[in-house]
Write a structure and sequence with these properties.
The chain has 538 residues and is an all-alpha fold. The protein is built from 24 helices and 2 strands. It starts with a helix and ends with a helix.
Length: 538
């Protein structure tokens, strides 16, 4: 009997062990079902981009990059408005900048491994055209020559020890001011472009809006609350999701409420046919294709015409003074725009204190400089790391994989204006009745991108969190920070803001007990900034 009892116990123990093993296998299988690991493609890409190591996924990186591209391509079209209206060349100037943006975003992703997007430098384009309009005898080729020389100097600075003066010697307060000042500047500019602020800075009233603008206004109010809600609840890609919903609502509103204007050929008020005509022309003149763009490129004009300043000299202009002012302007605006937008993206993405951010930032300055040497050769206006990079990091981009995704968007944009069809909130229907291509382009580039501007308002607000990093107890940091923020945000000029911040730092240090901590680099930088500031104000 005892032996039978012992055998029964052993059988029960064996059965229990088998049952426990089966339960463990089932639990492991359930865990495998619940937690699906990254795909083989994602693992392969991680060996280069390290997106998994930085806590993100391939899907998130690609989505964030494409979202940033959607906003950046709107800026590209707006830049074509600025350059084309003064230069008289829309297709060529668009293609040249789009090509630089494609190559630049690709290189920023591969070489820097940061979520940065290259796009048109709107600030430099505005300065360039203002110089063209005010100085008698200057040509577009002359300005390309100046930007070319400035870009070469910029490149020399960032690849030689001169970087210690113009980059590394920046006071800490000025460095911290760059994202905050740019955030204020972006918000104010985007509010004006979206129509919420008038040209004199006042809030627009409902009586100022057309019916369509009123519809858009309430869409933007709702979208703002939606964006804040998604941020508060930790939802992924809040910027791109908000933008996508706005675009969808725009199309629904256009179809439901505005098709009734399609009567007797009066299509200027419609929201559908105008857009379709941008890509599928029905009147014999395609608004844009890559063949038109290539035919309009003015490659090498800076070498054949750019250094001929005879007309400018005959009009009483001083070529040495013009080059001094122009080179300093393009040098400092280009350098500190790239540095500022790179830092702003890091602040929004929350990785500004990571080692990889510093290493990638230095490489980004070199990539931007090299591309701006190439840009004027193609006849392209200056480009830079765009403020739209912060859209990328707002939506969770942390590596260069998102930049590569954005570059693919620019590649498609080289061939067709499909993104204008999708994203323009206001189109100019008069262009569809013009048979001459370049004239038609002149109409269509006047399109507005109200919803892209709203996204930049919201992202600009995210840049302001950089103010938390400032040491308010130290005057040598707080005063230059405040001075630079005011200069960048309110004067709408990054280089002027940096100049004011650097000069205030030197003054504070000179009159304090910390004067011994002033370096030769600080003093040389301050001297250069003073010369630039005098020329800029005059």
């Amino acid at each position: 009997m005892a032996r039978e009892t012992t055998e029964a116990v052993e059988v029960n123990e064996t059965a229990n062990e088998t049952l426990e093993e089966e339960e463990e296998i089932l639990e492991e299988e359930e865990e495998e079902v619940k937690v699906k690991g990254p795909s083989g493609i994602s693992l392969a890409l991680n060996k280069f981009f390290h997106h998994l190591d930085r806590g993100t996924t391939m899907k998130s990186e690609i989505g964030a990059g494409l979202g940033a591209f959607c906003i950046a391509v709107c800026a590209l079209m707006m830049n074509t408005q600025i350059i084309g209206s003064a230069y008289g060349n829309y297709a060529g100037s668009y293609l040249a900048v789009a090509l630089i943006c494609f190559v630049g975003s690709l290189l920023l992703g591969i070489l820097c491994n940061l979520p940065l997007v290259m796009t048109a430098n709107m600030g430099l384009s505005a300065v360039l055209i203002s110089m063209l309009g005010t100085d008698t005898g200057l040509t577009y080729a002359n300005l390309m020559a100046v930007t070319f020389v400035a870009a070469i100097i910029y490149l020399v600075i960032v690849v030689t020890p001169l970087k210690n003066i113009f980059v590394n010697a920046l006071p800490e307060g000025v460095r911290k001011a760059l994202p905050v000042g740019i955030g204020i500047y972006v918000m104010l500019t985007a509010l004006e472009n979206s129509g919420i602020l008038t040209a004199d800075g006042a809030l627009a009233t409902a009586s100022d809006f057309t019916t369509l603008q009123t519809y858009y206004f309430w869409l933007m109010i709702g979208a703002t609350f939606l964006f804040i809600l998604m941020k508060a609840t930790g939802r992924k890609k809040p910027a791109f999701a908000t933008f996508g919903l706005l675009i969808a609502a725009m199309w629904v509103g256009g179809v439901l409420f505005y098709m009734n204007y399609f009567v007797g050929g009066q299509t200027a008020s419609t929201i559908v046919y105008e857009r379709l005509n941008v890509v599928v022309a029905t009147d014999g003149a395609d608004p844009y294709n890559i063949a038109t763009g290539i035919a309009s490129l003015n490659i090498g004009a800076l070498f054949t015409e750019g250094f001929d300043f005879s007309a400018y000299t005959e009009a009483g202009g001083s070529v040495p003074m013009f080059f001094l002012q122009g080179v300093l302007t393009f040098l400092f605006l280009g350098l500190y725009t790239n540095l500022g937008n790179t830092k702003a993206a890091a602040v929004v993405g929350g990785y500004e204190d990571e080692d990889y951010a510093t290493k990638g930032e230095q490489k980004a300055l070199v990539v931007s400089a090299a591309l701006n040497v190439a840009a004027p050769v193609l006849g392209a206006s200056p480009t830079a790391v765009g403020t739209q990079s912060s859209v990328d990091t707002e939506d969770g981009g942390k590596t260069g994989l998102s930049s590569v995704a954005a570059s693919l968007g620019f590649f498609v944009a080289l061939f067709v204006w499909i993104f204008t069809l999708l994203f323009a909130t206001k189109t100019n229907g008069a262009g569809m009745w013009v048979s001459e291509t370049e004239t038609k382009l002149a109409y269509y580039v006047q399109d507005a991108y109200v919803f892209a501007d709203l996204i930049m308002v919201l992202v600009g607000a995210s840049m302001l969190k950089g103010i938390r990093k400032v040491d308010t107890t130290r005057l040598a940091e707080m005063l230059p920070f405040a001075a630079a923020v005011v200069g960048i945000g309110l004067l709408s000029n990054i280089a002027v803001g940096v100049a004011i911040g650097v000069l205030s730092y030197v003054i504070v240090m000179a009159v304090s007990k910390e004067r011994k901590n002033l370096t030769a680099g600080n003093l040389v930088l301050a001297a250069c900034m003073l010369v630039y500031l005098i020329l800029a104000l005059l």
